[in-house]
Amino acid sequence: MADSIGGGGATTSANTAVVTGIGLVTPAGIGVSENWKRVVAGIPTAAIHAELADCALSMACCVPDFPPGTPGLRRGWQFDPFTQFAVTAAHEALTRAGLDPDAWPDSSRVAVVLGSGSGGAATMEEQIVRMRRGGPNRVSPLTLPMGLANMAAGQIAIEFGAQGPCLAPSTACASGATAIGIGRDLLRTGAADIVIAGGADACITPMYISALFRMGALSRRTDDAGTASRPFDVDRDGMLLAEGAGVLILESEEHARQRGARPLARIAGFGASADAHHVTSPHPEGRGAKLAMRNALADAGLGAGDVDYVNAHGTSTPLNDSVEAKAIHAVLGPDVAVSSTKGVTGHPLGAAGAIEAAYAVLAILDGVIPPTANLTRPDPVMAVDLVHTGARYGPVDVVMSNSFGFGGQNATLLITA
């Protein structure tokens, strides 16, 4: 029996999961190329949005210029925005992988694992307002087909004819990374040959903004929105809410070889854990974070010295960043390069882990570590090598990508060349 979720033994060439395609919809742009240029340049996306004027905070990181007619959305009007983002990212990932969903050799061997922290938040909020104002007859019959958290996974399966396992993990802000780890395990166990894996969220809504604002999780730096998300900075005061989707096409190495596909990278390790401490605050010593990172290393058969770069969860909240830096230092030492791309994108919640896994693949392909945007005064308690004055160029063979969610749910991916 292959190892279960969370890892515990190195992969072999027979069951290695390779990445053959990636797709991105984020505040940094629609598509991989546009995203990567902005992330490497460290150009923030945060802005004040007039349509959020009645919310507790009108500052957020929104996906730009996204009409429902975007390529890959044949039935976009039936989708909540989180599903629109997910299907669009999946379309790009499949195209980049050279896969034609109309010509699957065996569609039952194609799985979908698409995580989300909030599902169709915008749809559900809108329909609640309609019901309160106009009564139950004003509620759309599409409310649940659009709003349920599994619908991005379900619609991807329908859109692309994927008849294998179709799963929708929800581990809050770790959902996208968890989905990729589960997708890797489906390949390991032989349950699929191809997995469309990732995460999506679109909850820049009055309720989500208000709830996070009331928790004290959001930055108040409204006088300079562009610099509000500043992971690891001594002046950080909270995260910025974002939206988007990231999708990776995973294949068994044998399947990719047989069809002549060139692997972009490999999912070499996956570690999952729980803090078992508090519903929103991380364990003060990073107990769960350290466990997830060590599990991922053990799963990949790698040591601390093998990791070239950590794409940190790095939310720009005071607690997360200090605890995560402490955990990274404990597991990997003080010299590993660390950055957070949330200085550019903000925090897209359940999509974050998948988006950042895609960035990890691009870091390996291009030999570049993106900087942490807006990090001008590193907090002296961060005893790691923070990349912040600009991108760092050179060989990148092993990337660790961390994702930590409310509920104390943690997921770490190890992505290798």
TrEMBL record:
Q: Which residues form the Ketosynthase family 3 (KS3) domain?
A: 14-417
- Sorted UniProt keywords: Transferase
SMART domains for the chain = PKS_KS
Enumerate the SUPFAM superfamilies for this protein. Thiolase-like
Give the family, as the similarity comment puts it: Belongs to the thiolase-like superfamily. Beta-ketoacyl-ACP synthases family.
Q: What PANTHER family does the entry give?
A: BETA KETOACYL-ACYL CARRIER PROTEIN SYNTHASE, POLYKETIDE SYNTHASE-RELATED
Protein known as? Beta-ketoacyl-[acyl-carrier-protein] synthase family protein
* Origin species: Catenulispora pinistramenti
